[in-house]
Design a protein that fits this description.
The structure holds 2 protein chains of 2 kinds. Chain A contains 11 helices and no strands. Chain B is an alpha/beta fold. Classes of the chains: A mainly alpha, B alpha/beta.
Chain lengths: 286, 563
């Protein structure tokens, strides 16, 4: 082996720039989705619910860039409006599960003892149920729509956040700066909420970002099987379901567009979440 | 020809902005000699030594040459470098706990390189391992081979690591701060092992350390490194007693010594303190500021025998005085400090500050704040004792706002005054802790402790994580503050030399008990208890200072195993 001299061992690192490119692309994808969700009424070329039976399954045309579905509704417009419920659901779940998880994790870590043990068992119990199963259960009990699955998923995902918060806070509370706050006379609650919590938030945020992707896929699956957002409201999962028939007749677009949207957003959010946790991981003093 | 010959070695880091880490370093080590590489953190001493084995950082650009036994490591092929690492040179690292795989037995650690790299048979390798363990003075070599690293103490593990480094009979042994993580008595034992092995094998040794005293006790020649440059080199006595470079002079001056009476910076502090004490007595305040009455603390960990951390310790510090609590790791000195500041509850006994008991847990907010105003603490690790997210100034302001009703502008002004007192400026107040150096952080921690105006300041190894020159500055700050405020000090340390500089009285602790207590100067010059004598004898001192008799033959004592 004609090994290169060590003196010139300048490692051209290939992964670093590429990771950054992926990260930027992911940000752009998520930004486009968010903008089209928020601005759908202004940006969408058609009313998403406008039925044009004379023009069904048109395929891409200059009038309908992404074609129309079996009822002649514009796929692009439906995808943009669908982004609203498809993104809002996961967002609500992430926010709620993060809040619940932080509170429970913080209490478990800070109080310790029997409370920690009891909470840990409750988390174990929740881990045993797949989130989707809980969501289906909630739909069975409280009816279809967005609210019941979102509530169920929030509870199902909270333990993931709680477990992370708990372990982070346990590490953090043994640090001398926490002892220094105590010696200065600050109350335990103040230290936990105002000082320790903000220090663990970046890592928790990164984890919650990752959760967003999983929840999005779960909720899309739920509306695909008809238990989530109900027709005629546009929703990616529901759109895929509605277009199964078109798929059989060789029209790929009406099902593929929302499917690709789901895949793109999930991957993009995962890359963003990974990048966040990597960056944060490098900053936390060990 | 010398064994290791580094000449004009320059190393630049090429990530981001180009940084020159080593600048034209030239040094050589001959067979059979011990060469010291001395410098403070960031001086490039470890980098220089690692380069000898081709352990360069990524993104590095180098020039010059590093010739080990006739081969230039920088231009050598990987197989040549491997051959050098296998046969010619080996290295002992600082922390044996992280340097040895915790999941494998000591026997595996010692034999795997012989079996895998040198193709020895298992039986031969184990025979060799046994010999090595015996030669580094471990008490039960056969048993140790089957033990896991966590079953051995730090000192024993470091012996294992040395044995491992010696397994291939290297001609050059590179030691990177091998005793820094160890207690002083253990350090003395390890140094004994190293010198013995070196003499027997006629190896060259490159010894990296931040401790000038240690270098002077051990080395023939030393190189002093600062900012990646060799600023001084020569015979150790020459450099130590007659330093030429300004940096070396500063370093020698900053290095505290147990054996030379420090120019007392204490007297003015004492006088101020005494005036205040007299004043206090007039106004009917008790003259004993800090008192501990038969304090005990036992930890119960499931599955382990109860650990008596502090056992019936009593102490009493007059107003304005400084008491040092000295001991090795596990002596209970930190537990004692934590009990005094209220971070741990004593099992039995009472703590009185200015005559007020504070043994029980504080119940009301008022009580909590009242206690905070009497005792404050500065911790050892300046990197962990500041909240990473909070600006340095805001950390101090937090404490002020909690205890006083000052307006934002007033507290801000007070913060700047405090920063000024510890030798920092406004730009430091607006900086995040991670942008500050260790010494600056420790000053911030001191300012924060002083913010509430405590009567007693506990310094828990507050300077032991700092470089000597920085330590000297921080000690100066502490001393000034004592003088100005008449603070009562409890100084917890493992370093007798620092204690001598700072404290009037000293208490030596061992396994949770006080073994000796007295005036610092008396205690250091005329130690009564064998343990104090052992501590003093273990402190490295220049070879040429032989006028002080050693008290005990402790250095040849068998290795103590962890309880």
């Amino acid at each position: 082996m004609s090994a290169p001299a060590l003196s010139k061992s300048v490692r051209k690192s290939l992964w670093l720039p590429r990771a950054n490119v992926l990260f930027v692309i992911s940000l752009v994808i998520v930004a486009i989705m968010v903008i089209s969700a928020i601005g759908a009424p202004l940006l969408a070329p058609y009313d998403p619910d406008f039925v044009d039976l004379a023009n069904v399954l048109s395929g891409p045309t200059t009038a309908h860039w992404l074609g129309t579905d079996a009822l002649g509704r514009d796929t692009l417009s439906r995808m943009m409006f669908g982004a609203r419920s498809s993104l809002l659901g996961p967002l609500l779940v992430v926010v709620l599960s993060t809040i619940i998880g932080i509170l429970l994790g913080l209490i478990a870590a800070w109080r310790g003892g029997w409370l920690d043990a009891v909470l840990a068992r409750i988390f174990d119990l929740l881990f045993a149920f797949p989130a989707l199963l809980l969501a289906i259960l909630a739909v069975a009990l409280f009816g279809k729509g967005l609210a019941a699955p979102v509530a169920a998923m929030s509870i199902a995902y909270a333990p993931f956040v709680a477990r992370l918060v708990r372990s982070l806070v346990i590490t953090e509370r043994t640090r001398p700066y926490v002892a220094a706050y105590r010696v200065q006379g600050f109350s335990g609650g103040w230290i936990a909420m105002r000082r320790v919590l903000p220090n663990v938030m970046p890592t928790v945020g990164a984890q919650s970002t990752l959760n967003f992707g999983y929840v999005l896929a779960d909720l899309a699956a739920l509306s695909f099987i008809g238990l989530g957002v109900q027709a005629p409201t546009a929703d990616w999962g529901a759109m895929i379901n509605e277009s199964r028939g078109a798929l059989m007749s060789g029209q790929l677009l009406p099902a593929m567009v929302p499917a690709i949207a789901v895949v793109l957003v999930v991957i993009a959010v995962n890359i963003i979440g990974e990048e966040f946790s990597d960056r944060i991981g490098g900053q936390i003093p060990s | 020809m010398s064994l290791l010959n580094i000449s004009d070695f320059t190393l630049d880091l090429t990530t981001g902005s180009k940084a020159r880490l080593l600048d034209a370093v030239t040094l050589n080590v001959a067979e059979g000699e011990t060469v010291g590489l001395v410098g403070e953190s960031g001086s490039g001493k470890s980098l220089t030594a690692r380069s000898a084995l081709g352990l360069l950082p990524g993104f590095a650009e180098t020039s010059g040459s590093v010739v080990l036994d006739g081969t230039d490591v920088l231009s050598a092929t990987s197989s040549q470098v491997l051959a050098l690492r296998r046969g010619t040179a080996s290295m002992v690292f600082q922390d044996p706990r992280s340097g040895i795989n915790p999941l494998r037995r000591i026997g595996d650690y010692l034999t795997e390189s012989l079996i895998l790299c040198n193709g020895w048979s298992k039986a031969d390798a184990y025979k060799r391992a046994l010999e090595l363990l015996r030669s580094v003075g471990l008490p039960r070599p056969e048993a140790h081979l089957n033990q896991f690293p966590h079953e051995l103490s730090g000192g024993m593990l470091q012996r294992v690591m040395i044995a491992g480094a010696l397994s291939t009979s290297p001609r050059l042994l590179i030691c990177d701060e091998p005793t820094t993580a160890l207690d002083v008595t253990t350090q003395a034992e390890i140094i004994g092992v190293l010198t013995e092995q070196q003499a027997q094998r006629g190896m060259g040794m490159l010894f990296i350390t931040h401790d000038l005293n240690l270098a002077s006790a051990l080395c023939d020649r030393i190189y002093v490194l600062n900012g990646g440059k060799v600023v001084e080199k020569g015979a150790v006595k020459e450099v130590f007693t007659n330093p030429q470079a300004a940096y070396t002079q500063q370093l020698v001056a900053a290095t505290p010594s147990v054996f030379t009476r420090a120019v007392s910076v204490i007297s003015p502090a004492r006088s101020a303190a005494f005036v205040q004490a007299a004043h206090a007595q007039e106004s009917g305040q008790p003259s004993v500021m800090l008192e501990g009455r038969s304090l005990s603390k036992t930890y119960y960990v499931k599955g382990n025998a109860p650990l008596v951390a502090v056992n019936d310790v009593s102490l009493s510090v007059p107003r304005g005085d400084a008491l040092a609590v000295v001991g090795e790791s596990g002596s209970g000195k930190s537990t004692l400090a934590r009990m005094i500041v209220g971070l741990e509850q004593a099992d039995t006994g009472d703590i009185l500050v200015a005559g007020v008991s504070r043994a029980a847990q504080a119940h009301s907010k008022a009580e909590r704040l009242e206690r905070a105003r009497t005792v404050q603490i500065v911790f050892q690790d300046p990197y962990l004792s500041l909240d990473p997210r909070i600006l340095a100034g805001a950390a101090v302001e937090d404490a002020l706002r909690l205890h006083t009703k000052l307006s934002h502008a007033e507290s801000r002004a007070k913060v700047l005054a405090l920063f000024d007192q510890v030798g920092l400026g406004e730009k430091h107040a607006n900086a995040r802790p991670r942008t500050l150096s260790g010494g600056q952080r420790q000053r911030v921690a001191i300012a924060r402790a002083l913010a509430v105006g405590p009567d007693v300041l506990v310094l828990d190894e507050a300077t032991s994580a700092l470089d000597v020159s920085v330590q000297a500055q921080v000690l100066e700050v502490v001393d000034e503050i004592r003088r100005e405020r008449g603070l009562t000090l409890l100084f917890v340390s493992h370093d007798l030399a620092v204690v001598r500089k700072v404290c009037e009285t000293t208490m030596v602790m061992r396994r949770g008990e006080i073994v000796e207590h007295g005036q610092t100067a008396d205690l250091l010059e005329n130690p009564q208890h064998p343990y104090t004598q052992l501590l003093l004898d273990s402190i490295p001192r220049p070879e040429w200072e032989t006028d002080r008799p050693r008290h005990s033959a402790a250095l040849t004592d068998p290795v103590a195993e962890p309880a």
